[in-house]
Amino acid sequence: MLNGLWLSFFVVAAVAGLSRWLLADDPAVFAAMVESLFAMAKLSVEVMVLLFGTLTLWLGLLRIAEKAGLVDALARLLGPLFARLMPEVPRGHPALGLITMNFAANGLGLDNAATPIGLKAMRALQELNPSSTTASNAQILFLVLNASSLTLLPVTIFMYRAQQGAPDPTLVFLPILLATSASSLVGLFSVAIMQRLRIWDPVVLAYMVPGALLLGGFMALLAGMSATALAGLSSLLGNLTLFGVIVAFLVIGALRKVQVYEQFIEGAKEGFDVAKSLLPYLVAMLCAIGVLRASGALEFMLDGIRWLVAWGGWDTRFVDALPTAMVKPFSGSAARAMLIETMQTQGVDSFPALAAATIQGSTETTFYVLAVYFGAVGIQRARHAVGCALLAEFAGVVAAISVCYWFFG
């Protein structure tokens, strides 16, 4: 899948370049494409340096949280909910702890770190699966919730914005929180309908109703605020939450007699190992997208969409954020590259860049997750997993664009 996607970027760029040379008499297009290759290779290394630090920091902190018992406590807290949503998984089964850790990593925006934990969780669920080739209900729910990408603290998005020079990297905190909530709820309800889960069970409602009321009340509070005030509040809450989580992990770890420094170093080593494997993918995708942009093919496609949107009488500013949305179901590295490229060409705090960052933080790589998670355990029949995951992804994109118009006008 990724092989065809990556190759298509170069093939389309080559066709577009030849068209500009032969039809528009623009031979300089090839010089621009070659220059873009080297520029994007350099940018990949610059992004990678900061990504090393981000993953190392947060996996170190996540190790402290794990040793302090916070992950186990969260698993016990969610145990009654999982018992209703995944009735075939016995209470206390190792899969529940791994699922919790996976959700914690996703919640912190550490999608690269969440993948190895998620694979362990999928293998644990496969041990309970009576079929070796057909996905179980629990596996489908786990995959769809991963694809809906519930991100409470998108630190990697903050990192990309900081690397591109954003004066306030956390500006998109609240938009991502609202958009990811929408995608996760759609994903959960779509699976519940397909699997006939008892979503109206008193225990499930006890978890969901307070959260829904809190989110609804919060949105009602935000409704009366101006765009400037919304942006300011998003910045304040983003920075406050980010630092608050760090302090909470350290303080609780120290109170539980955890050797916080030693455990941080152990987790940080894992983060370093995860980060160093990402550079080849980042170079590959950024260079392919850079060539696509330099050839004029990407702009030609966006101009067509922009014309259709304008013909319908709608605002066209979100169109430049659509490349991130269109490739996100297939490849996280391609979407990441599209986001960085949008920030570079449009400006890090432009509306398209803010919308692309919100889309990146509130959706997941549906087909990639499907291939990796199910492929790791030999699942061939996904049943309703793809439809539910894509519905959640679509809801996340629509919510992200809508929320950005609300916050950034």
Automatic annotation (TrEMBL):
Keywords: Membrane, Transmembrane, Transmembrane helix. Pfam families: Gate. Residues 51-159, 276-379 form the Nucleoside transporter/FeoB GTPase Gate domain. GO terms for cellular component: plasma membrane. The chain crosses the membrane at residues 40-61, 140-160, 172-193, 205-230, 236-255, 278-298, 353-374, 386-408. Signal peptide: none annotated. The keyword Membrane applies. This is Spore maturation protein SpmA. It comes from Phytopseudomonas seleniipraecipitans.
